[in-house]
Amino acid sequence: MKLSTLLAALPRYTGRLTRDPAQVEIAAISADSRQVTAGTLFVAYPGVSVDGHRFIPQAIEQGAAAIVYEETGLTELPQTTLPFIAVPDAREALAYLSAAWYDFPARRLITVGLTGTDGKTTTTNFLYQILRAAGRKVSMISTVGAVIGDQVLETGLHTTTPDAPEVQRYLAQMVAAGTEICLLETTSHGLAQHRVTACDFDVAVVTNITHEHLDLHRSLDAYRAAKALLFESLATAAPKGVPKRAVLNCDDWSFEYLKTRLAAGATAWLGYSLENHPASTVTACQPLVAPDKTRFTVQGSDYRFEAETVLLGDYNISNALAAVTAAVEGLGVPPAAAQQGLAALPGVPGRMERIDEGQAFTAVVDFAHTPNSLRRALRAARQLVKGRVIAVFGCAGRRDVEKRTLMGQIAAELADLTLITAEDPRTEDLTAIIDQTAQAMLAQGAVEGRDFYRVPDRGRALFQAVQLAQAGDIVLALGKGHEQSMCFGQTEYPWDDRKALRSALRGQPLLTLPSASRSF
Predict the structure, then answer these.
(1) What is the β-pairing status of strands 294-299 and 304-309?
(2) What is the signed CA dihedral for 473, 460, 311, 486, rounded to 10 degrees?
(3) pLDDT per residue as tens digits for the range 106-129
(4) First-residue to last-residue Cα distance in the chain
């Protein structure tokens, strides 16, 4: 592809164009200098821990055809005849360049963005099933992976929204597969770092906005502003003959805030509510949470139907309402298809997923890794059993440290017994991470050795939890969900909570993590 064609996609650029861009042929685009080969357009930007501008010489040596860099990233250009293109934000430029490389695939799709602190993946899967029930050709990118036509693809470790080149590549594959509607789970990282820029969203859905990712965003205000970028983008997205719609949670504190971030007249909003909020378009009533399923009645603008799902907890009713609102009110899906789609979802990997080895108590794996999701999971557990709630969880290293205290407080309030353990400690000291949560529990009046234990190795923690469990109790393995690895130092070690919990239920702790051989 000609460099001139790619540069035409950028909102703004300047630079040293030593040759006519129409005469420069680009063979690939990359922001990773290790992947640069002859003819690559290398995009350099400041990363979280490493500045990509440092690798420009390496990219040139490996045959880069042109360099895109951030205006403030270089004080002096290297002595070379290569074109150097300066942009205000190189991450944003990478997104537009990637979209142009694949001929702007989002413009040929109805694109639905789903964001929120908790519930994104479940809502995405609900919506996917509803659209399939309606006979729509739908693909999705979620935390669990990408589904494109009949293909199920892995999207990487600890990743919800892939980087911009991968997102655009997936969108292009969707177009080639005949997809009509794309569902794209979008994190605050993905929005703030321009991973989903140039995706031309038509519908934006929010589940909630609570305390999370303050390690990146520094404040809750900055975090919610990142989430709002999805809704602001609706006003500038390419028109496709479908009305732009924002789907808001009337029960969440983000409702009033997000309404103010919608461009006046450019985007209509639709609301959903579990609490019969007067502004809501879709509500639920008569909820009944049973041990094996959840039933409720959906009331929409001019329809009403009885709904049923195998997913448990009131919060999953809210997730279902978000999906129904987006599908029926936003995309014109028949209510009957929404009813069928909700019932068709067999479950979501690592989301209140039951593990059954014939034990006399309930064992569940859930992804709850934020204060809000921990609170909701523990409350849901109370609805499911009459016995004790036993929680096993940890807090990640190199991430939002305030969560450690908040989650300890919530566990002290809502769990009968807690085992504090490892969850991706990364380069932090695991003992210190656990201690922050333990101190929060102690401050709430919890007694160590009675109300909670510190068990650094996650395999041993799960084994101890099932050994302590009695008939009628529930053991919750929280925080890892569907994930397939655990990070110690800078190494990802294979780990699956579902396998570990199943092994523990069979009488054998899974001792494969580095913490299993350490003395704490």
Answers:
(1) antiparallel
(2) 160
(3) 999 999 999 998 899 999 999 999
(4) 57
Cβ contacts of 111 within 8 Å, gap of 6 or more: 171, 181, 182, 184, 199, 200, 201, 202, 203, 237
Instruction: Give the length of the chain.
Output: 520
Closest CA to 392 of 492, 291, 510, 287: 510
Dist. CA 121–CA 126, nearest whole Å: 9
Which ranges of 282-384 would DSSP assign to H, the alpha helix? 314-324, 331, 335-344, 371-384
Q: Which two tokens stand for residue 345?
A: 């979802």
Matching residue, tokens 């993946």: 121
User: How many other CB atoms are there within 10 angstroms of residue 46's CB atom?
Assistant: 15
Give the global pTM: 0.87
Q: Partners of 485 in the beta sheet?
A: 494
State which amino acid sits at residue 292.
D
Nearest to 104 by CA among 200, 8, 16: 200
Name the strands in the sheet holding 304-309, side by side, starting at the edge strand that comes first in the sequence. Answer: 151-153, 146-148, 138-141, 181-185, 110-115, 203-206, 245-249, 268-273, 282-289, 294-299, 304-309
Instruction: Give every CB contact of residue 449 below 8 A, 6+ residues apart in sequence.
Output: none
Sign of the CA dihedral with 206 first, then 210, 212, and 217 last:
positive
267 contacts: CB under 8 Å, gap ≥ 6: 231, 234, 235, 244, 245, 246
User: What is the Cα–Cα distance from 333 to 120, expressed in whole angstroms?
Assistant: 20
**Phi and psi (nearest 5°) for 435?**
-65, -35
Task: Give pLDDT tens digits for 85-106.
Answer: 999 999 999 999 999 999 999 9
Compute the average pLDDT of residues 30-46. 96
Residue 207 contacts residue 118 (beta carbons within 8 Å): yes
Q: Are 109 and 138 in contact (CB under 8 A)?
A: no
Pair 316, 294: CB distance under 8 Å: yes
CB 169 within 8 A of CB 102: yes
What's the confidence (pLDDT) of residue 300?
96
Residue that is written with structure tokens 């209510």 in the block:
335
- Dist. CA 267–CA 337, nearest whole Å: 25
Residue 192 CA to residue 178 CA, distance in Å, equals 30
